[in-house]
């Protein structure tokens, strides 16, 4: 379950507290997906690295605005 920032502390039906997903979780997830794709299809390495760098650059610029 995804808990939105305004809903902190509220619990879902089954009790307990859900996990909050933020932008800081994107980098490790992107790295995992990229690593798996590179192992499965090595030709994708250039595209994966390029897309990863573009996304990290955009997130970095958006964070400073």
What does this 3D model show about the protein?
The structure is a single chain. 54% of the residues lie in helices and 0% in strands. It has 2 helices and no strands. It has a domain at 23-65. The two termini are 30 Å apart. The model has no long low-confidence stretch (mean pLDDT 75). It has helices at residues 26-40, 45-64. It is an all-alpha fold.
Taken as a percent bin, the fraction of beta residues is under 5%
Secondary structural class: mainly alpha
Query: DSSP helix count?
Result: 2
Strand and helix order: HH
Low-confidence stretches: none
CA-based gyration radius: 16 Å
Helical percent range? 40-55%
Inertia-based shape? flat
Number of strands: 0
Oligomer: single chain
Biggest beta sheet summary: none
Distance between the termini: 30 Å
User: pLDDT average, as an integer?
Assistant: 75
What order do the helices and strands come in, and which of them pair?
Elements: H1 26-40, H2 45-64
Helix pairs in contact: 1-2
How would you describe this structure in keywords?
2 helices, 0% strand, 65 residues, mainly alpha, flat
Quick rundown:
Helix 1 packs antiparallel against helix 2. The chain is built from two helices and no strands.
